[in-house]
Sequence to fold (156 residues):
Amino acid sequence: MITRAAKPAAIPSGTSPPRAHPPDDEDPLVDEARDALGSYCFTACKASCCRSGQLPLRTPVEVAVVAGGRRAALLRSSRLVKNPDGTSTLSLEQPCPRLGADFRCAVYAARPAVCREYPLFVFGARIVVAPACPGAAAGLLDAHLARLREKGYTII
Fold:
């Protein structure tokens, strides 16, 4: 469950913020692999995952965290769409409303599940690596993915 956090503490420049705890059923090595991206996301990549594509939001709390006071305006502009299954999708044809000018997330501690899981999505013994992640494409996860394969995961 995602909880609304108080204003997140400032993260020193050039460092990565601490990650949220992985789900109880997730292998800690998966989260360690995500952490391997370190400051690459906001220094080299410039948070490309937060600037293009679609952001699936699973709960009304996630919508509130991302949209803040702009929910109605995002719905009117069709950037935020309610899906028939009760989830919502935010179009990132413009950057996420919570992405700062320094390419850091303003709601990092309370960010949506998909943001916490990116770029590795675990489905049982299968791990899907987001093909749009420049860090993964640059090989920054390769050593971790090899260790996950050794543990029996199938990497897609």
User: Anything to note?
Assistant: Residues 142-150 form the longest helix (9 residues). The beta strands are 54-57, 80-82, 88-91, 120-123, 126-129, 154-155.
